[in-house]
Amino acid sequence: xxxxxxxxxxxxxxxxxxxxxxxxxxxxxxxxxxxxxxxxxxxxxxxxxxxxxxxxxxxxxxxxxxxxxxxxxxxxxxxxxxxxxxxxxxxxxxxxxxxxxxxxxxxxxxxxxxxxxxxxxxxxxxxxxxxxxxxxxxxxxxxxxxxxxxxxxxxxxxxxxxxxxxxxxxxxxxxxxxxxxxxxxxxxxxxxxxxxxxxxxxxxxxxxxxxxxxxxxxxxxxxxxxxxxxxxxxxxxxxxxxxxxxxxxxxxxxxxxxxxxxxxxxxxxxxxxxxxxxxxxxxxxxxxxxxxxxxxxxxxxxxxxxxxxxxxxxxxxxxxxxxxxxxxxxxxxxxxxxxxxxxxxxxxxxxxxxxxxxxxxxxxxxxxxxxxxxxxxxxxxxxxxxxxxxxxxxxxxxxxxxxxxxxxxxxxxxxxxxxxxxxxxxxxxxxxxxxxxxxxxxxxxxxxxxxxxxxxxxxxxxxxxxxxxxxxxxxxxxxxxxxxxxxxxxxxxxxxxxxxxxxxxxxxxxxxxxx
Length: 515
Fold this sequence. Notes:
This protein is α/β, with parallel strands linked by helices. It has two domains: 35-65 and 76-189 and 198-341, Rossmann fold, CATH 3.40.50; 410-444 and 453-494, no CATH class. The chain is 45% helix and 10% strand. It has helices at residues 9-19, 26-37, 52-62, 117-123, 146-162, 166-187, 222-228, 233-250, 262-273, 301-307, 313-325, 336-341, 364-394, 407-411, 425-442, 474-489, 491-495, 502-514, and strands at residues 42-48, 86-93, 100-109, 132-139, 213-218, 253-256, 293-294, 415-418, 421-424. The strands form two sheets. The protein has a seven-stranded mixed β-sheet with strand order 2-3-1-4-5-6-7, with helices on both faces. Strands 8-9 form a two-stranded antiparallel sheet. The longest helix has 31 residues, at 364-394. It is found in: Cytoplasm, Cytoskeleton. Keywords: ATP-binding, Cytoplasm, Cytoskeleton, Dynein, Microtubule, Motor protein, Nucleotide-binding, Transport. Its main location: cytoplasm.
């Protein structure tokens, strides 16, 4: 057993310091090497626009979940995209499913509000810019909102990019250079050797954003509803030509997210994320309207014109460039939204005027005074109509307004029989009136003697006399006709004295002598 003799503290300290040498950090170096070797590359995807449900469907279509194994339980990754800036992540597996190509950090925004510009600026860090891609998501259920939404998102991106640091601006320029290089590589054929720089066509990549952008139009099933509402091939071609013209200025790709078209949309989006497992060209498709695929850097004005004639590609490109910059001074011609609305109008336009809080009403006295004036006018109209009806009743009209004969004409003359003699009452009344008129004409200028019933004897069977210029007394006429009726029956005729004629006297005397 070894024994240690005590020594001074200073001597022991010097001896330990001279014998122990510092060892290299083995474990930290080993852990750093392993973590670097197994580190998964990170990518950043900005998913902008549409509803949270549409964003979730697109994420599922781009990154389908791996089939669950028997040992592990299926795990769902949450997606928080209901309010403001949302976030989730997805691992992108290789084709054989053994390795993970990249972990994609997905950031979502619901609307192109200018308040979200600082959030985008914080996401676009120098380390994230080379590995960031953007998706502008549209919905076919609202095609009239395509262009307004695209312009608003592009303005928001330009606002966020303009506030980046100088280092970030240089990285954005590097992205633009890489975009041109890839465009030239895609344009090469197997015949040519090397990469030849091809010039840009008019309206192509003249306003780069510094980030790869893809326009994805979802909910393709809604195109059937538009077709039932009157859309034809011309409208669908106009939409595609408009989107291609605007996307060409910024170097964007365009994809219609149709059911069964997952390969096309994945190829375009993965290319923007730079996670291609194999470098192969993306096949374009502009014929099938439900499965459109336009890779970035493939399009040109000539290809857009071929789709349908009559499209003003120069005017749309010029208006797009002016509206994206947001300059309101010295605008020539129509704006982009006006050109778009001329063919794709919103059928559900509502009055945007807000209802007034204060309701204007008429004072009670003013309202009652106006109603009183109306009532007085109605009363005057009623009195006028009443007077007209009374005058119409007094007037003896032979025929009514319908042209039918009057009642007197339908009944005919009033006649009766007296003692075998046919007597016309109407004719008698007519004669009496004529006599009255003649008497009034003769009596003009001479004083007329007043007569009473006592002074004017009435003889049955003879027509009564009347004073000129006065109405015919109805009582005398009634008595006159009553006497005629009685005379016809024989009562009054027998009682009245008769003057015997000479023939009757002689005949009577002869008979008497003969007896």
